[in-house]
Amino acid sequence: MSDLTPHRILDSLRALPADRLRGVRRGIEKESLRAQPDGSLARTPHPAALGSALTHPRITTDFSESQLELITGVHGSAQACLDELTQIHQFVYRSIGDERLWVASMPCCLPADEQIPIARYGSSNIGRAKSVYRTGLSHRYGRRMQTISGIHYNWSMPGVSTDGYFALIRNFRRHAFLLIYLFGASPAVCSSFVAGHPHGLQPLADNTLGLPHATSLRMGRLGYQSDAQAALAVSYNSLDSYAASLHDALIRPHPAYEDIGVRDADGEYRQLSTSLLQIENEFYGTIRPKRVIRPGERPLHALRERGVEYIEVRCMDLDPFVPVGIAESTARFLDVFLLHCLLADSPQDSPQETAALACNQERVAARGREPGLRLQRGRTEVSLVEWGAQLLRECAPIAAALDALHGGNGHRDALLAAQAGLENPAQLPSARVLAAMAASFGGAHVPFVRARCEAARQDLLARPWSTAQAAHFQALTQQSLQDRQAIEAADRTPFEDFRQQYLAPEQLQPTRTASAHGA
User: Quick check: 291 and 306 in contact, CB under 8 A?
Assistant: First the structure.
Protein backbone atom coordinates (compact mmCIF):
# COMPACT_ATOMS: atom_id res chain seq x y z
CA MET A 1 0.00 0.00 0.00
CA SER A 2 1.60 3.25 -1.14
CA ASP A 3 2.07 6.33 1.04
CA LEU A 4 0.26 8.18 -1.76
CA THR A 5 -2.90 6.10 -1.33
CA PRO A 6 -4.75 8.56 0.98
CA HIS A 7 -4.05 11.47 -1.39
CA ARG A 8 -5.25 9.48 -4.40
CA ILE A 9 -8.42 8.49 -2.58
CA LEU A 10 -9.05 12.15 -1.67
CA ASP A 11 -8.45 13.26 -5.26
CA SER A 12 -10.78 10.55 -6.58
CA LEU A 13 -13.42 11.46 -4.01
CA ARG A 14 -13.27 15.18 -4.85
CA ALA A 15 -13.62 14.35 -8.54
CA LEU A 16 -16.72 12.26 -7.90
CA PRO A 17 -19.92 14.18 -8.75
CA ALA A 18 -22.44 14.31 -5.91
CA ASP A 19 -25.14 12.73 -8.07
CA ARG A 20 -23.01 9.61 -8.50
CA LEU A 21 -22.44 9.32 -4.75
CA ARG A 22 -26.14 9.92 -4.21
CA GLY A 23 -26.82 7.17 -6.73
CA VAL A 24 -25.25 4.37 -4.68
CA ARG A 25 -27.71 1.51 -4.40
CA ARG A 26 -27.78 -1.53 -2.16
CA GLY A 27 -29.90 -4.60 -1.49
CA ILE A 28 -29.68 -7.45 1.00
CA GLU A 29 -30.17 -11.21 0.77
CA LYS A 30 -30.39 -12.87 4.18
CA GLU A 31 -30.36 -16.62 4.78
CA SER A 32 -31.77 -18.25 7.91
CA LEU A 33 -32.60 -21.81 8.87
CA ARG A 34 -36.08 -22.51 10.19
CA ALA A 35 -35.66 -24.11 13.61
CA GLN A 36 -37.93 -25.69 16.17
CA PRO A 37 -38.22 -23.99 19.59
CA ASP A 38 -35.88 -26.64 21.05
CA GLY A 39 -33.10 -25.65 18.64
CA SER A 40 -33.42 -28.56 16.22
CA LEU A 41 -33.83 -28.14 12.47
CA ALA A 42 -37.42 -27.68 11.29
CA ARG A 43 -37.85 -30.30 8.58
CA THR A 44 -41.31 -29.14 7.54
CA PRO A 45 -41.98 -28.12 3.92
CA HIS A 46 -41.59 -24.50 2.88
CA PRO A 47 -44.62 -22.82 4.54
CA ALA A 48 -47.55 -22.44 2.15
CA ALA A 49 -48.25 -18.93 3.47
CA LEU A 50 -44.88 -17.84 2.06
CA GLY A 51 -45.89 -18.68 -1.49
CA SER A 52 -43.71 -20.32 -4.13
CA ALA A 53 -39.99 -20.40 -3.44
CA LEU A 54 -39.47 -20.54 -7.21
CA THR A 55 -41.17 -17.27 -8.07
CA HIS A 56 -41.64 -15.14 -4.93
CA PRO A 57 -39.58 -11.93 -5.35
CA ARG A 58 -38.85 -11.49 -1.64
CA ILE A 59 -38.96 -14.95 0.01
CA THR A 60 -37.30 -18.07 -1.35
CA THR A 61 -35.13 -20.92 -0.10
CA ASP A 62 -31.40 -21.52 -0.38
CA PHE A 63 -29.94 -25.03 -0.25
CA SER A 64 -32.45 -26.63 2.07
CA GLU A 65 -36.22 -26.65 2.22
CA SER A 66 -35.59 -25.53 5.80
CA GLN A 67 -33.40 -22.57 4.80
CA LEU A 68 -35.19 -19.34 4.00
CA GLU A 69 -33.63 -16.60 1.92
CA LEU A 70 -35.16 -13.15 2.35
CA ILE A 71 -34.46 -10.64 -0.42
CA THR A 72 -34.96 -6.88 -0.36
CA GLY A 73 -35.40 -4.69 -3.37
CA VAL A 74 -32.81 -2.11 -4.43
CA HIS A 75 -32.65 0.95 -2.16
CA GLY A 76 -31.12 4.40 -2.11
CA SER A 77 -30.32 4.31 1.61
CA ALA A 78 -29.22 1.79 4.20
CA GLN A 79 -32.20 2.70 6.36
CA ALA A 80 -34.73 2.02 3.59
CA CYS A 81 -33.06 -1.31 2.84
CA LEU A 82 -33.17 -2.39 6.50
CA ASP A 83 -36.77 -1.17 6.81
CA GLU A 84 -37.84 -3.52 4.00
CA LEU A 85 -35.81 -6.40 5.41
CA THR A 86 -37.57 -5.86 8.74
CA GLN A 87 -41.01 -5.94 7.10
CA ILE A 88 -40.18 -9.19 5.30
CA HIS A 89 -39.17 -10.68 8.64
CA GLN A 90 -42.39 -9.47 10.25
CA PHE A 91 -44.44 -11.23 7.59
CA VAL A 92 -42.40 -14.43 7.82
CA TYR A 93 -42.78 -14.62 11.59
CA ARG A 94 -46.54 -14.24 11.19
CA SER A 95 -46.49 -17.18 8.75
CA ILE A 96 -44.32 -19.87 10.39
CA GLY A 97 -46.18 -20.62 13.61
CA ASP A 98 -43.92 -21.67 16.47
CA GLU A 99 -40.84 -22.06 14.29
CA ARG A 100 -37.94 -19.67 14.69
CA LEU A 101 -35.51 -18.11 12.25
CA TRP A 102 -32.08 -19.26 13.43
CA VAL A 103 -30.17 -16.04 14.08
CA ALA A 104 -26.64 -17.49 13.86
CA SER A 105 -24.62 -18.28 10.75
CA MET A 106 -23.52 -21.68 12.04
CA PRO A 107 -26.51 -24.01 12.09
CA CYS A 108 -28.82 -25.31 14.79
CA CYS A 109 -28.82 -28.96 15.91
CA LEU A 110 -28.73 -30.95 12.71
CA PRO A 111 -30.03 -34.45 12.02
CA ALA A 112 -28.07 -37.01 10.03
CA ASP A 113 -26.86 -35.58 6.76
CA GLU A 114 -29.36 -37.44 4.59
CA GLN A 115 -32.24 -36.14 6.73
CA ILE A 116 -31.53 -32.48 5.92
CA PRO A 117 -34.20 -31.74 3.28
CA ILE A 118 -33.09 -30.38 -0.08
CA ALA A 119 -35.14 -27.43 -1.37
CA ARG A 120 -37.97 -28.23 -3.80
CA TYR A 121 -39.33 -25.87 -6.43
CA GLY A 122 -42.09 -27.77 -8.19
CA SER A 123 -42.38 -29.76 -11.38
CA SER A 124 -41.20 -27.23 -13.96
CA ASN A 125 -37.89 -27.77 -15.71
CA ILE A 126 -36.29 -24.77 -14.03
CA GLY A 127 -37.68 -25.89 -10.66
CA ARG A 128 -36.34 -29.42 -11.13
CA ALA A 129 -32.97 -28.03 -12.24
CA LYS A 130 -32.68 -25.99 -9.05
CA SER A 131 -33.32 -29.09 -6.93
CA VAL A 132 -30.97 -31.30 -8.95
CA TYR A 133 -28.25 -28.66 -8.57
CA ARG A 134 -28.71 -28.82 -4.80
CA THR A 135 -28.65 -32.61 -4.89
CA GLY A 136 -25.31 -32.26 -6.65
CA LEU A 137 -24.04 -29.98 -3.91
CA SER A 138 -25.05 -32.57 -1.32
CA HIS A 139 -23.04 -35.29 -3.11
CA ARG A 140 -20.03 -33.03 -3.63
CA TYR A 141 -19.76 -31.29 -0.26
CA GLY A 142 -22.30 -32.84 2.10
CA ARG A 143 -25.50 -31.23 3.27
CA ARG A 144 -24.21 -29.84 6.55
CA MET A 145 -21.90 -27.32 4.90
CA GLN A 146 -24.80 -26.00 2.85
CA THR A 147 -26.84 -25.14 5.96
CA ILE A 148 -24.43 -22.36 6.92
CA SER A 149 -26.20 -19.02 6.50
CA GLY A 150 -25.11 -15.44 5.98
CA ILE A 151 -25.80 -11.99 4.62
CA HIS A 152 -25.16 -11.03 1.00
CA TYR A 153 -24.83 -7.29 0.38
CA ASN A 154 -25.44 -6.20 -3.22
CA TRP A 155 -23.97 -2.81 -4.15
CA SER A 156 -23.66 -0.55 -7.18
CA MET A 157 -22.87 3.04 -8.12
CA PRO A 158 -23.77 4.76 -11.40
CA GLY A 159 -20.99 5.36 -13.87
CA VAL A 160 -18.78 2.47 -12.78
CA SER A 161 -17.42 0.48 -15.72
CA THR A 162 -16.88 -3.26 -15.69
CA ASP A 163 -13.14 -2.62 -15.31
CA GLY A 164 -13.96 -0.32 -12.38
CA TYR A 165 -15.96 -3.04 -10.66
CA PHE A 166 -13.11 -5.52 -11.12
CA ALA A 167 -10.70 -3.00 -9.59
CA LEU A 168 -13.10 -2.75 -6.63
CA ILE A 169 -13.22 -6.55 -6.38
CA ARG A 170 -9.41 -6.85 -6.33
CA ASN A 171 -9.16 -4.35 -3.46
CA PHE A 172 -12.06 -5.97 -1.65
CA ARG A 173 -10.32 -9.32 -1.72
CA ARG A 174 -7.17 -7.69 -0.30
CA HIS A 175 -9.03 -5.98 2.53
CA ALA A 176 -11.92 -8.36 3.29
CA PHE A 177 -9.97 -9.55 6.35
CA LEU A 178 -11.18 -6.37 8.07
CA LEU A 179 -14.85 -7.25 7.52
CA ILE A 180 -14.33 -10.77 8.82
CA TYR A 181 -12.54 -9.38 11.88
CA LEU A 182 -15.06 -6.62 12.62
CA PHE A 183 -18.31 -8.44 11.84
CA GLY A 184 -17.53 -12.14 12.17
CA ALA A 185 -20.02 -13.59 14.66
CA SER A 186 -19.54 -17.36 14.41
CA PRO A 187 -16.73 -18.39 16.78
CA ALA A 188 -18.57 -21.54 17.96
CA VAL A 189 -20.83 -24.27 16.61
CA CYS A 190 -23.03 -27.13 17.74
CA SER A 191 -21.00 -30.34 17.69
CA SER A 192 -23.65 -31.96 15.46
CA PHE A 193 -22.25 -29.89 12.59
CA VAL A 194 -18.95 -31.78 12.54
CA ALA A 195 -20.15 -35.17 13.80
CA GLY A 196 -17.89 -37.87 12.41
CA HIS A 197 -15.56 -35.44 10.63
CA PRO A 198 -12.12 -34.00 11.55
CA HIS A 199 -12.45 -30.36 12.54
CA GLY A 200 -9.57 -28.99 14.66
CA LEU A 201 -11.96 -27.22 17.06
CA GLN A 202 -11.78 -27.16 20.84
CA PRO A 203 -14.60 -28.22 23.19
CA LEU A 204 -16.15 -25.17 24.84
CA ALA A 205 -19.07 -26.88 26.61
CA ASP A 206 -21.37 -29.85 26.15
CA ASN A 207 -22.24 -30.19 22.45
CA THR A 208 -20.29 -27.00 21.67
CA LEU A 209 -17.03 -26.57 19.79
CA GLY A 210 -15.09 -23.47 18.83
CA LEU A 211 -11.83 -21.56 18.95
CA PRO A 212 -10.94 -18.95 21.58
CA HIS A 213 -9.87 -16.21 19.14
CA ALA A 214 -12.08 -17.18 16.17
CA THR A 215 -14.14 -14.53 14.44
CA SER A 216 -15.98 -16.50 11.74
CA LEU A 217 -15.94 -20.29 11.48
CA ARG A 218 -18.25 -19.73 8.52
CA MET A 219 -15.44 -18.06 6.58
CA GLY A 220 -12.78 -20.56 7.65
CA ARG A 221 -12.02 -24.18 6.91
CA LEU A 222 -15.41 -25.38 8.15
CA GLY A 223 -17.31 -23.02 5.85
CA TYR A 224 -17.74 -22.81 2.13
CA GLN A 225 -14.42 -24.35 1.21
CA SER A 226 -13.65 -26.82 -1.56
CA ASP A 227 -10.38 -28.59 -2.31
CA ALA A 228 -11.51 -28.95 -5.91
CA GLN A 229 -12.23 -25.23 -6.25
CA ALA A 230 -8.98 -24.34 -4.50
CA ALA A 231 -7.22 -25.50 -7.65
CA LEU A 232 -9.05 -22.84 -9.69
CA ALA A 233 -6.67 -20.02 -10.60
CA VAL A 234 -9.27 -17.31 -11.00
CA SER A 235 -7.92 -13.90 -11.93
CA TYR A 236 -9.92 -10.72 -11.29
CA ASN A 237 -7.75 -8.54 -13.53
CA SER A 238 -10.46 -8.26 -16.17
CA LEU A 239 -13.82 -9.67 -17.17
CA ASP A 240 -12.06 -11.71 -19.83
CA SER A 241 -9.66 -13.39 -17.39
CA TYR A 242 -12.44 -14.00 -14.84
CA ALA A 243 -14.83 -15.37 -17.46
CA ALA A 244 -12.18 -17.64 -18.98
CA SER A 245 -11.47 -19.23 -15.60
CA LEU A 246 -15.15 -19.85 -14.89
CA HIS A 247 -15.86 -21.03 -18.43
CA ASP A 248 -13.22 -23.72 -18.13
CA ALA A 249 -14.54 -24.88 -14.74
CA LEU A 250 -18.08 -25.06 -16.13
CA ILE A 251 -17.23 -27.29 -19.09
CA ARG A 252 -14.24 -29.34 -17.84
CA PRO A 253 -15.18 -32.73 -16.33
CA HIS A 254 -13.79 -33.35 -12.85
CA PRO A 255 -12.81 -36.98 -12.14
CA ALA A 256 -14.32 -37.11 -8.63
CA TYR A 257 -17.61 -35.76 -9.95
CA GLU A 258 -17.56 -38.10 -12.92
CA ASP A 259 -17.49 -40.91 -10.36
CA ILE A 260 -20.74 -39.53 -8.87
CA GLY A 261 -22.38 -39.51 -12.30
CA VAL A 262 -25.31 -37.44 -13.52
CA ARG A 263 -27.89 -40.18 -12.81
CA ASP A 264 -28.00 -43.25 -10.64
CA ALA A 265 -28.94 -46.79 -11.74
CA ASP A 266 -32.64 -45.99 -11.32
CA GLY A 267 -32.42 -42.89 -13.51
CA GLU A 268 -32.67 -40.41 -10.62
CA TYR A 269 -30.57 -37.29 -11.08
CA ARG A 270 -27.56 -36.94 -8.79
CA GLN A 271 -26.22 -33.64 -10.16
CA LEU A 272 -26.62 -31.36 -13.16
CA SER A 273 -23.22 -32.16 -14.66
CA THR A 274 -19.84 -33.72 -13.90
CA SER A 275 -17.85 -30.53 -14.45
CA LEU A 276 -15.88 -28.82 -11.71
CA LEU A 277 -18.78 -26.36 -11.35
CA GLN A 278 -22.33 -27.42 -12.19
CA ILE A 279 -23.39 -23.78 -12.64
CA GLU A 280 -21.84 -20.38 -11.92
CA ASN A 281 -23.31 -20.07 -8.41
CA GLU A 282 -21.28 -23.04 -7.22
CA PHE A 283 -18.12 -20.94 -7.35
CA TYR A 284 -17.47 -19.79 -3.78
CA GLY A 285 -15.85 -16.48 -2.94
CA THR A 286 -16.02 -13.46 -0.67
CA ILE A 287 -17.35 -11.28 -3.50
CA ARG A 288 -18.88 -11.81 -6.97
CA PRO A 289 -19.40 -9.65 -10.04
CA LYS A 290 -23.09 -9.82 -10.94
CA ARG A 291 -25.59 -8.93 -13.65
CA VAL A 292 -29.36 -9.33 -13.63
CA ILE A 293 -30.07 -12.23 -15.99
CA ARG A 294 -32.88 -12.66 -18.49
CA PRO A 295 -35.16 -15.74 -18.40
CA GLY A 296 -33.14 -18.83 -19.32
CA GLU A 297 -29.88 -16.88 -19.58
CA ARG A 298 -26.63 -18.11 -18.04
CA PRO A 299 -25.04 -15.63 -15.59
CA LEU A 300 -21.66 -15.86 -17.34
CA HIS A 301 -23.28 -15.06 -20.68
CA ALA A 302 -24.98 -12.02 -19.12
CA LEU A 303 -21.66 -10.75 -17.77
CA ARG A 304 -19.87 -11.28 -21.06
CA GLU A 305 -22.71 -9.74 -23.05
CA ARG A 306 -23.54 -6.67 -20.96
CA GLY A 307 -20.80 -6.26 -18.34
CA VAL A 308 -20.92 -6.06 -14.55
CA GLU A 309 -23.99 -4.33 -13.09
CA TYR A 310 -23.28 -4.69 -9.37
CA ILE A 311 -21.18 -6.64 -6.90
CA GLU A 312 -22.29 -9.12 -4.26
CA VAL A 313 -20.45 -9.16 -0.90
CA ARG A 314 -20.63 -12.68 0.55
CA CYS A 315 -18.46 -12.68 3.67
CA MET A 316 -20.89 -11.21 6.23
CA ASP A 317 -22.06 -13.37 9.14
CA LEU A 318 -25.51 -13.07 10.64
CA ASP A 319 -25.36 -10.82 13.70
CA PRO A 320 -27.27 -12.71 16.45
CA PHE A 321 -27.64 -9.50 18.46
CA VAL A 322 -29.71 -7.83 15.70
CA PRO A 323 -33.23 -9.20 14.97
CA VAL A 324 -32.80 -9.09 11.18
CA GLY A 325 -29.15 -10.19 11.17
CA ILE A 326 -27.47 -6.95 10.10
CA ALA A 327 -27.41 -3.54 11.76
CA GLU A 328 -27.89 -0.28 9.89
CA SER A 329 -24.45 0.87 11.07
CA THR A 330 -22.95 -2.26 9.47
CA ALA A 331 -24.59 -1.41 6.15
CA ARG A 332 -23.24 2.13 6.39
CA PHE A 333 -19.75 0.78 7.06
CA LEU A 334 -20.04 -1.49 4.02
CA ASP A 335 -20.97 1.50 1.85
CA VAL A 336 -17.86 3.37 3.03
CA PHE A 337 -15.64 0.30 2.71
CA LEU A 338 -16.81 -0.47 -0.83
CA LEU A 339 -16.25 3.11 -1.93
CA HIS A 340 -12.73 2.86 -0.54
CA CYS A 341 -12.19 -0.32 -2.56
CA LEU A 342 -13.44 1.53 -5.66
CA LEU A 343 -11.47 4.75 -5.22
CA ALA A 344 -8.09 3.36 -4.10
CA ASP A 345 -5.48 2.25 -6.60
CA SER A 346 -5.97 -1.42 -7.44
CA PRO A 347 -2.91 -3.22 -8.80
CA GLN A 348 -3.34 -6.36 -10.87
CA ASP A 349 -3.58 -9.57 -8.87
CA SER A 350 -1.25 -12.56 -9.18
CA PRO A 351 -1.34 -16.24 -8.20
CA GLN A 352 1.08 -15.46 -5.37
CA GLU A 353 -1.14 -12.72 -3.97
CA THR A 354 -4.23 -14.92 -4.32
CA ALA A 355 -2.53 -17.61 -2.20
CA ALA A 356 -1.55 -15.02 0.42
CA LEU A 357 -5.11 -13.68 0.60
CA ALA A 358 -6.47 -17.18 1.16
CA CYS A 359 -3.97 -17.60 4.01
CA ASN A 360 -4.99 -14.24 5.51
CA GLN A 361 -8.68 -15.17 5.38
CA GLU A 362 -8.02 -18.47 7.16
CA ARG A 363 -5.94 -16.76 9.86
CA VAL A 364 -8.53 -14.07 10.58
CA ALA A 365 -11.44 -16.52 10.57
CA ALA A 366 -9.76 -18.87 13.06
CA ARG A 367 -7.51 -16.51 15.04
CA GLY A 368 -8.63 -12.97 14.27
CA ARG A 369 -8.70 -11.72 17.88
CA GLU A 370 -5.38 -13.33 18.79
CA PRO A 371 -3.13 -10.56 20.20
CA GLY A 372 -0.42 -9.55 17.75
CA LEU A 373 -1.83 -11.54 14.81
CA ARG A 374 0.06 -10.71 11.61
CA LEU A 375 -1.08 -10.97 8.01
CA GLN A 376 0.75 -11.21 4.71
CA ARG A 377 0.93 -7.95 2.75
CA GLY A 378 3.15 -8.10 -0.28
CA ARG A 379 6.50 -9.59 0.65
CA THR A 380 6.22 -8.72 4.32
CA GLU A 381 3.91 -9.30 7.27
CA VAL A 382 2.02 -6.58 9.09
CA SER A 383 -0.17 -6.67 12.19
CA LEU A 384 -3.89 -6.96 11.53
CA VAL A 385 -4.57 -4.02 13.87
CA GLU A 386 -2.04 -1.78 12.13
CA TRP A 387 -3.32 -2.60 8.65
CA GLY A 388 -6.94 -2.24 9.73
CA ALA A 389 -6.28 1.14 11.38
CA GLN A 390 -4.63 2.41 8.19
CA LEU A 391 -7.67 1.40 6.14
CA LEU A 392 -10.04 3.11 8.58
CA ARG A 393 -8.01 6.33 8.41
CA GLU A 394 -8.27 6.25 4.64
CA CYS A 395 -12.04 5.68 4.92
CA ALA A 396 -12.59 8.79 7.09
CA PRO A 397 -12.98 11.34 4.24
CA ILE A 398 -15.37 8.97 2.44
CA ALA A 399 -17.54 8.72 5.55
CA ALA A 400 -17.47 12.50 5.90
CA ALA A 401 -18.54 12.96 2.28
CA LEU A 402 -21.46 10.55 2.68
CA ASP A 403 -22.58 12.22 5.90
CA ALA A 404 -22.40 15.63 4.23
CA LEU A 405 -24.52 14.33 1.38
CA HIS A 406 -27.15 12.49 3.45
CA GLY A 407 -27.05 14.39 6.74
CA GLY A 408 -26.24 13.14 10.23
CA ASN A 409 -23.12 11.33 11.40
CA GLY A 410 -24.08 7.71 10.70
CA HIS A 411 -21.08 6.88 8.52
CA ARG A 412 -18.60 8.56 10.86
CA ASP A 413 -20.13 6.72 13.81
CA ALA A 414 -19.82 3.40 11.94
CA LEU A 415 -16.10 4.07 11.45
CA LEU A 416 -15.67 5.03 15.11
CA ALA A 417 -17.30 1.75 16.16
CA ALA A 418 -14.93 -0.13 13.87
CA GLN A 419 -11.96 1.70 15.39
CA ALA A 420 -13.19 0.76 18.86
CA GLY A 421 -13.29 -2.88 17.78
CA LEU A 422 -9.70 -2.70 16.58
CA GLU A 423 -8.58 -1.20 19.89
CA ASN A 424 -10.71 -3.44 22.09
CA PRO A 425 -11.53 -6.84 20.53
CA ALA A 426 -13.88 -7.64 23.44
CA GLN A 427 -16.39 -5.33 21.73
CA LEU A 428 -16.47 -7.43 18.55
CA PRO A 429 -19.53 -9.62 17.83
CA SER A 430 -17.42 -12.80 17.93
CA ALA A 431 -16.13 -11.95 21.41
CA ARG A 432 -19.60 -10.90 22.59
CA VAL A 433 -21.02 -14.25 21.44
CA LEU A 434 -18.46 -16.20 23.47
CA ALA A 435 -18.91 -13.91 26.47
CA ALA A 436 -22.70 -14.27 26.43
CA MET A 437 -22.42 -18.05 26.02
CA ALA A 438 -20.10 -18.24 29.02
CA ALA A 439 -22.05 -15.81 31.22
CA SER A 440 -25.54 -17.26 30.91
CA PHE A 441 -25.45 -20.58 29.08
CA GLY A 442 -22.51 -22.50 30.51
CA GLY A 443 -20.55 -21.86 27.34
CA ALA A 444 -23.10 -23.72 25.18
CA HIS A 445 -23.86 -22.47 21.67
CA VAL A 446 -27.37 -23.74 20.96
CA PRO A 447 -28.98 -22.44 24.19
CA PHE A 448 -27.43 -19.02 23.55
CA VAL A 449 -28.74 -18.87 19.99
CA ARG A 450 -32.17 -20.16 21.08
CA ALA A 451 -32.40 -17.23 23.50
CA ARG A 452 -31.39 -14.79 20.77
CA CYS A 453 -33.97 -16.36 18.42
CA GLU A 454 -36.72 -15.86 20.97
CA ALA A 455 -35.66 -12.26 21.57
CA ALA A 456 -35.68 -11.55 17.82
CA ARG A 457 -39.07 -13.23 17.41
CA GLN A 458 -40.66 -11.22 20.22
CA ASP A 459 -39.11 -7.98 18.97
CA LEU A 460 -40.40 -8.42 15.42
CA LEU A 461 -43.87 -9.64 16.40
CA ALA A 462 -44.26 -6.66 18.74
CA ARG A 463 -43.60 -4.08 16.01
CA PRO A 464 -46.52 -2.31 14.30
CA TRP A 465 -48.03 -4.31 11.45
CA SER A 466 -50.75 -2.72 9.31
CA THR A 467 -53.47 -4.35 7.27
CA ALA A 468 -51.91 -2.71 4.21
CA GLN A 469 -48.58 -4.42 4.90
CA ALA A 470 -50.30 -7.76 5.41
CA ALA A 471 -52.28 -7.34 2.20
CA HIS A 472 -49.11 -6.46 0.26
CA PHE A 473 -47.31 -9.64 1.26
CA GLN A 474 -50.38 -11.81 0.83
CA ALA A 475 -50.68 -10.47 -2.72
CA LEU A 476 -47.04 -11.37 -3.38
CA THR A 477 -47.74 -14.88 -2.10
CA GLN A 478 -50.75 -15.36 -4.36
CA GLN A 479 -48.97 -13.93 -7.39
CA SER A 480 -45.98 -16.22 -6.82
CA LEU A 481 -48.25 -19.27 -6.80
CA GLN A 482 -49.90 -18.17 -10.04
CA ASP A 483 -46.51 -17.49 -11.64
CA ARG A 484 -45.23 -20.93 -10.69
CA GLN A 485 -48.35 -22.58 -12.13
CA ALA A 486 -47.91 -20.64 -15.37
CA ILE A 487 -44.28 -21.75 -15.69
CA GLU A 488 -45.24 -25.37 -15.09
CA ALA A 489 -48.12 -25.20 -17.56
CA ALA A 490 -45.88 -23.72 -20.26
CA ASP A 491 -43.21 -26.44 -20.07
CA ARG A 492 -43.11 -28.65 -23.15
CA THR A 493 -39.47 -29.76 -23.24
CA PRO A 494 -38.43 -33.03 -21.57
CA PHE A 495 -36.18 -32.31 -18.59
CA GLU A 496 -33.14 -34.07 -20.03
CA ASP A 497 -33.36 -31.95 -23.18
CA PHE A 498 -33.76 -28.85 -21.03
CA ARG A 499 -30.70 -29.80 -18.94
CA GLN A 500 -28.50 -30.38 -21.97
CA GLN A 501 -29.63 -27.18 -23.67
CA TYR A 502 -29.05 -25.08 -20.55
CA LEU A 503 -25.58 -26.53 -19.94
CA ALA A 504 -24.44 -26.33 -23.59
CA PRO A 505 -21.06 -24.52 -23.77
CA GLU A 506 -22.37 -22.07 -26.36
CA GLN A 507 -24.81 -20.74 -23.75
CA LEU A 508 -21.78 -19.28 -21.93
CA GLN A 509 -20.50 -17.30 -24.90
CA PRO A 510 -21.54 -13.73 -25.74
CA THR A 511 -23.54 -13.27 -28.91
CA ARG A 512 -21.64 -10.06 -29.59
CA THR A 513 -18.70 -8.12 -28.19
CA ALA A 514 -19.97 -5.96 -25.35
CA SER A 515 -19.00 -2.32 -25.82
CA ALA A 516 -16.23 -1.58 -23.31
CA HIS A 517 -17.74 -4.48 -21.33
CA GLY A 518 -20.71 -2.36 -20.36
CA ALA A 519 -21.07 0.51 -17.93
Answer: yes
Distance CA 116, CA 100 (A): 17
- CATH numbers and ranges of domains, the chain: 5-238+282-496 (3.30.590.20)
What are the pLDDT digits (tens) for 91-143?
Answer: 999 999 999 999 999 999 999 999 999 999 999 999 999 999 999 999 999 99
Contact indicator for 445, 210 with CB cutoff of 8 Å: yes
At position 504, the amino acid (one-letter code) is A
Q: Of 370, 427, 136, give the one whose Cα is nearest residue 259.
A: 136
pLDDT at 487: 98
Give the angle subtended at the CA of 434 by the CAs of 431 and 436, to the nearest 5°: 105
Q: 431: part of which helix (H) or strand (E)? A: helix 429-440
What torsion, rounded to 10 degrees, do the Cα atoms 50, 53, 54, 58 define? 70
pLDDT 10s digits, 238-270: 999 999 999 999 999 999 999 999 999 999 999
d(CA 405, CA 395): 16
Biggest alpha carbon–alpha carbon distance for the chain: 65
Report the b/e string of 381-392 with b at 16+ CB within 10 A. eeebbebbbebb
| CA angle, residues 118, 29, 301, in degrees to nearest 5 | 80
Q: What is the DSSP string of 444-509?
A: -HHHHHHHHHHHHHHHHHHS---HHHHHHHHHHHHHHHHHHHHHHHH--S-HHHHHHHHH-GGGGS
For CA atoms 297, 301, 303, 305, give the dihedral sign.
negative
Phi/psi at 94 (nearest 5 deg)? Answer: -80, 0
Output the 3-class SS for 363-408. Answer: HHHHHCCCCCCEEEECCEEEEHHHHHHHHHHHHHHHHHHHHHHHCC
Pick from 146, 176, 219: nearest CA to 367:
219
42 DSSP assignment: P
Residues 51, 48: Cα–Cα separation, whole Å: 5
Distance CA 206, CA 190 (A): 9
Can you count the helices (H) and strands (E) in the chain?
A: 18, 12
State how beta strands 374-377 and 310-316 pair. Answer: unpaired
The strand ranges marked E within 10-119 are 25-35, 59-61, 67-71, 100-101
SS3 for 265-302 is: CCCCECCCCCECCCCHHHCCCCEEEECCCCCCCCHHHH
Q: Of 136, 134, 142, 42, give the one whose Cα is nearest residue 92.
A: 42
Q: How far apart are CA 518 and CA 428, in angstroms?
A: 39
Contact partners, residue 244, CB within 8 Å, separation at least 6: none
237: which residues sit within 8 A by CB, 6+ positions away?
Answer: 166, 170, 348, 349
**216 DSSP 8-state letter:** B
Q: How far apart are CA 486 and CA 242, in angstroms?
A: 36
Q: For the whole model, what pTM was predicted?
A: 0.96
